[in-house]
Give the backbone structure.
Amino acid sequence: MPATDIDTAMLALGENARRASRAMMRATGAAKNQALHAMAEALRDKRAELQAANAQDVDAARANGLEAALLDRLTLSDKAIDRMAEGLLQVAALPDPIGSTTASALRPNGMRVAQMRVPLGVIGIIYESRPNVTIDAAALCLKSGNATILRGGSEALHSNVALGRIVQAGLQAAALPAEAVQVVGTTDRAAVGKLITMTEHIDVIVPRGGKGLIARLASEARVPLIKHLDGNCHVYIDAAADPQKAHSIAFNAKTYRYGICGAMETLLIDAGVAVSILPRLAAAFSAHGVELRGCPRTLDIVPSATPASDEDWGTEYLAPILAVRIVDSLDQAIEHIARWGSGHTDAIVTEDLSAAQRFQREVDSASVYVNLPTCFADGFEYGLGAEIGISTNRLHARGPVGLEGLTTLKWVLNGDGQTRG
């Protein structure tokens, strides 16, 4: 498609979204919930149609050599479709944040000052290889009163277009504008370039993808970003860890799913318990096909491991590979995470309350866990219903971004004719 045609098409999407966003600001909670329920029902009713469209994407991706972890993200299995439908219903069950106000403060002149929660407006979402994001994003943007333009990866185009039709039908069933959710129907990269510069129509961009995508958007975007960089997640087994708990948490953190951003990529283990815990854990990982890359002290305990390099400490593998380092203290574990971590999700396994409190206070990540595997880094697990992404920003939202992360506050003042003297 010529650049001028892409510009025209993207501007039309932006204009439609801006109009729809004004309608969504006055949409009732009942109407939004009706749309979400209609979408969930349609997902199940049109399962065969969706999977046929998805099969086109999966077959093409496999032929193009897409990695196994990314193929897993791309596939709309029965379980994935049921999970999307459940996510829609869970979002519908959440309280509507729009229009809620903080407690008002009475000023000396009698006027009342408060803040009201309102939508961000129009959200552009750019993502790769995960068609479930189409539903998650649509649900959260709809419930939070926003309009959205969705641009999925080229490898999921057929799936995303089919899901977009279901979403728009649900909106229309509730007498809401179909243009409140629009899927970009071209794989041309120029569409992304246009989307991230349309400041008159787009209020915020949420990118979900690899480092290359995020780097490009951070460099070229004129619209503000809520961005998620890589998930280089750590589990630290403390000297005061329960051995069985440490084993199950570390194993689950890595093997639950390799391709998610919450998968553990580095295991840190205190030297005081390494000899007693690491051999059994290493055997379990080996039996599961996980390659271990370890520090010199790790190699002394697990000779079959591969020597780790500095590059391994900083890598998000998204694969059955795990870096392992033995540390001498909680301080050293925290220092390692500060140097090599990505600020996503990190966990400590310990029965020592003071160590747990220090870890949660001093590890500067969006999510910090005690005695839980990092694979819980998911808005659904946090009770958000679904997530639009996991932000490693410090502003405006951090961690899994659910409904509240897609809203902002405005000041609302009420008086009775007061004037300023």
Summary: The chain has a mean pLDDT of 94.
